[in-house]
Amino acid sequence: MRSRFEPDRRLTARMALTMFLLGLLYVVFVGVLIFLLKSWVLVVVIAAAALWAQYWFSDRIALYAMRGRIVTAEEEPRLHGVVDRLCATADMPKPEVAVSALDLPNAFATGRNADHAVVCVTRGLMRRLEPDELEGVLAHELSHVAHRDVAVITVASFLGVLAGLAVRFAFYSGAFGGRRDQNAFVVLMSVVAVSAAVYAISFVLIRALSRYRELAADRAAALLTGRPSALASALTKLTGDIARIPTSDLRTAQAFSAFYFAPAISGETNRSLSRLLSTHPPLEKRLEQLAAISAQLGPTAGQRG
User: Fold this and answer.
1) Does 96 show up as a binding residue in the annotation?
2) Residues in domain Peptidase M48 (predicted)?
3) Is 214 annotated for ligand binding?
């Protein structure tokens, strides 16, 4: 069932193109591995197991890594109340609600579809945001679920995981017959080179999609709530606070930065080089879009919801 979140055909087209290119890359990668390792059974089993685990357990893996846990309405009535209102407004299934113990002010959504999704916020975010700002952030995360880009990013990131696994298995499996001769070394270096190339290509494709999907989620959330200024306020506040989070805490979150509302990398949006490879668009670009939406809504902005 289609939700009431503003549809984004350009996002849908970008997701389809990214998945097509990654799928093509995946087929070529598996074919090359089978040729190099001379064992199609090993490659297919590893690839299938990794994809299965990534697709079915991505939400649990993300929650565990970020020290999050599912909370009930009795434990977090305020948080559940906001999610309930937004899901009713958007006419979409309510995802599970989780809270992370981290002080890092952020939020993320994960899961394979709208019926098996989790929206998680950190204690640091709940402590810092006003009610309307929290609503804007949660609407942003729910739009990721409604647009299905959470599942696409989850599956897309699988190729990078597979590339890393291929290198490890090349070292530790019996693919080389236990020998350390010159031929085995050449095969090993070939696997490493191919895996590195595949990882680099998938990295760039996923980052490009991730930046656009954040803009799409900002727009959908602003139109659903009718309060783009609240979302802009939350963005400004959280981006500034993340820059003051200890580096050790940021390292915990960086592996999941693509899933976050705001980039979990201090100073990411202020470096020209990192903008090309960043998971999020620059803060000023997000704020410009929200300002344009506010002008589009006119006097009604801030009076809905």
Assistant:
1) no
2) 75-292
3) yes
